Amino acid sequence: MDVRATAAARVYDPRKEPPPQESSRTELGKDAFLKLLLTELRYQDALKPVDDKEMIAQMAQFSTLEQMQNLGVAMEGLAKMQHATQAAALIGKKITAAVGDEVITGTVSGVKFKDSVAYLIVGEKEVLVTDVTEIS
After folding, report:
1. 129 pLDDT exceeds 80?
2. Which CATH architecture is the domain 90-136 placed in?
């Protein structure tokens, strides 16, 4: 089965994806948001307290931010699991892979995980699923 027809699609490549970076100074994470909210409450004017509606809106924003971060972590885990499942499905299949300038052909005998990245074992070589060009 030739899979070159999908070569133009964007494929997750763990070697090329940038590592997760810490939040930049312009991003407001949940810890910074909570500190800002507590500071606002601590230094508010006792004669002009924060409006109830405004406080509820800020708490809703905080809750939404936390859920978005949780969703991002869950999606990342799902992507890793899908990558591992795809690799495991190739055990026993004959593949051709382009690794740099080298073309590797052989039967996948197993899958090895390094830093949460799945590598196919073909003979003595380790091949990423994204390097596979043909499956038969």
Report:
1. yes
2. Roll (2.30)
